[in-house]
Design goal:
583 residues, mainly beta, Immunoglobulin-like, seven-stranded mixed sheet, six-stranded mixed sheet, 38% strand, disordered N terminus, binds 2-acetamido-2-deoxy-beta-D-glucopyranose, binds copper (II) ion, Cu-oxidase_2nd, Cu-oxidase-like_N, oxidoreductase
């Protein structure tokens, strides 16, 4: 065994410091071969502490954490804590070429930050190449200040008996570096569908038949007791498709979205794009009474309820995914449980619903920030479309500009990552900003009409500005796709969406989300196309510039991000030093 037992534990040290604690965690990245869907062939993938999904990190509100990432793989890597706002600690955000250089093989990077005021369901993942297929794990921030005592667990007004994590992800029968090469190279045609949809890193590619294979763990099974309330934390670690998710004969009551508690909303299914998280409460029924009466005893499959995923917003295919399911298993009865799984009883998961799904109906528990109702200080309109480059590769242009870092990301599986395509040593954006801080005040910067600053390739915004960002879908080639956009360093409110093209004079006052949630991933849906501009749907989000730094805003479909569907907010770079938590 090359790797000692130490890799298989989450190494952590907790030190009490008043109410909040100081926690130290080590994450060790190394290369391995995985066959999570029992396909029969393993492919090269990166693991964290020997695990996939990566180990769950649990911390509490206002805790301070120090997380060391040791890169023992032979490719550069980096880790991002998705949804954590990193107030005053932009240098810990984990975006290669932006807030740090990628971590070289053999090197270590130390993240330090405080969970200021944030609680809920987050995750951490690699931000280099398609490493996030497997380098991703839950990051849970507990809310310890509950006034309630009669249930086992509480979060705000919600009590529950136990909780589960359902971490969705996708798996391709291909080595990770080859997949990255495909997306960024001249052979790229379109995003290929994943071979498997995994729940907590598991499924059966061929259904039941391969379950006898040695070392094959099969579907994820969540054991429950009758007449209990469970919190299911659903993490959208899928990196490409958007999925519906339902549980046979069980409703789900949504109580949390992207770390924000909301008023309870009961639904039969979720819609989960890459990067989104939900907590739902599930009430298990009184299994004994119902089933003894109906069936006069149990058949072997009576205690299993399928949790199934379906394709949404996918051209040319709908219905359940081929293998993206797991099971709720009622365990509290005397028969021997046989692990026989009957697939026929799937939950109905409705096919595509209109733009915006149920988003307009969800309501936050917390009152909104006052700036939600102000006139914005700045509106950035971001149009992105694909172009085919001279070498045949495909790239997204952002307002007509190509990301200056693209070729460099392409090389990330070689050790040449520190050079850009001109062979000149590259320094990441944050460092460059710091070295020129006196000049990067607003009056001194020469911005393009769309708000872009060409020397560092950022969109500068001022301290304390209310900033609206219009994310405009543009039809390129055959399709206009759904894109889930993620904001680093901030949660945001989604305030409006529309068909076709956003026209500021006409649409600037539009609002169709009466009580938006403060979240960090927002979808731009595919709508009908404006024949003149090819605009095919837009969504407007709003954030408040109280966190100086340089923050990536990108599509959370990993391949799209690698192809350049990303831009940088340069937020009050003249204030970064003042706001810095660790001087
Ligand atoms: C279910 O649980 C509730 C409270 O947790 C209890 O009052 C009720 O009697 C239980 N139902 C049955 C059938 O046991
Ligand atoms: C789910 O909720 C609907 C609407 O509230 C209700 O009619 C239905 O009986 C519920 N189903 C279950 C299994 O609880
Ligand atoms: C930004 O807002 C904070 C909090 O409201 C205030 O204390 C500070 O003076 C403002 N700074 C600037 C430069 O506007
Ligand atoms: Cu996208």
């Amino acid at each position: 065994m090359v790797f000692s037992i130490i890799y298989f534990l989450l190494l952590s040290i907790f030190i009490k410091r008043g109410a909040a604690e100081f926690k130290q965690i080590d994450l060790i990245i190394h290369q391995s071969y995985l066959d999570p869907d029992c396909f029969g062939t393993s492919y090269s993938a990166l693991l964290v502490n020997g695990q996939f999904p990566a180990p769950t990190i649990r911390v509490s509100k206002d805790d301070e954490v120090e997380i060391r990432v040791l890169n023992q793989a032979d490719v550069p890597t980096s880790i991002h804590f998705h949804g954590i706002r990193q107030y005053g600690t932009v240098e810990s955000d984990g975006v290669p070429d932006v807030t740090q250089n990628a971590i070289n093989p053999g090197s270590t990077f130390t993240h330090r930050f405080q969970l200021k005021g944030q609680t809920g369901t987050f995750y951490y993942h690699a931000h280099v190449g398609v490493q996030d297929d497997t380098v991703q794990g839950a990051f849970i921030v507990e809310n310890n200040n509950s006034p309630y005592t009669s249930k086992t667990y509480y979060d705000g007004p919600y009590g529950y008996d136990d909780e589960f994590i359902l971490h969705l992800s996708e798996w391709w029968h291909q080595d990770f570096f080859k997949r990255e090469e495909y997306y960024l190279g001249p052979g790229y045609v379109h995003d290929p569908n994943a071979d498997s949809v995994l729940f907590n890193g598991r499924t059966l590619y061929r259904g039941e038949s391969s379950s006898t294979q040695r070392g094959c763990e099969g579907h994820s099974i969540f054991d429950v007791l009758p007449n209990r309330t469970y919190r299911l934390r659903v993490i959208g670690g899928n990196t490409f498709r958007t999925y519906g998710l339902g549980i046979k004969d069980h409703n789900m009551t949504i109580i949390e979205v992207d770390g924000e508690l909301i008023h309870p909303y009961t639904t039969t299914h979720l819609e989960i794009t890459p990067g989104q998280r939900f907590s739902v409460l599930i009430h298990t029924d009184d299994f004994y009474l119902r089933h003894y009466e109906e069936n006069d005893g149990f058949s072997n499959s009576d205690n299993m309820y399928a949790i199934a995923t379906s394709y949404r917003h996918r051209h040319r295919a709908t219905g359940h995914t081929e293998n993206g399911f797991g099971f709720l298993r009622y365990v509290d009865y005397s028969d021997n449980i046989k692990h026989k799984i009957i697939h026929k009883n799937f939950p109905e998961v409705p096919e595509n619903t209109p733009r915006d799904w149920i988003w307009p109906y969800l309501r936050p528990l917390e009152p909104p920030a006052p700036w939600l109702y102000q006139t914005p200080d700045r509106t950035l309109k971001i149009r992105t479309w694909t172009s085919v480059m001279q070498d045949g590769s495909t790239r997204y242009a952002v307002n007509g500009k190509l990301s200056h870092k693209i070729s460099h990301i392409y090389d990330s599986h070689t050790t040449k990552f520190e050079k850009n395509n001109n062979g000149i040593l590259n320094y990441f954006t944050l460092l460059k900003m710091q070295s020129v801080t006196p000049e990067r005040t607003f009056g001194a910067m020469d911005l393009d009409e769309d708000g872009f600053e060409p020397t560092l390739g950022t969109y500068p915004i001022r301290l304390n500005e209310t900033v609206d960002i219009v994310l405009q879908n543009v039809k390129s080639g055959m399709n206009c796709l759904l894109h889930p956009w993620h904001t680093h360093g901030h949660s945001h409110y989604v305030i409006a969406s529309g068909d076709g093209e956003y026209v500021h004079e006409r649409d600037h006052d539009k609002r169709n989300f009466p009580h938006p949630i403060y979240k960090d991933v927002t979808v731009v849906y595919e709508t009908k196309v404006d024949p003149h501009t090819k605009g095919c749907g837009w969504t407007k989000i709003r954030l408040y510039a109280d966190n100086p730094g340089v923050w990536a805003v990108h599509c959370h479909i990993t391949a799209h991000m690698l192809q350049g569907k990303m831009f940088l907010l340069e937020e009050a770079s003249d204030w970064i030093d003042t706001f810095r938590m660790y001087k």
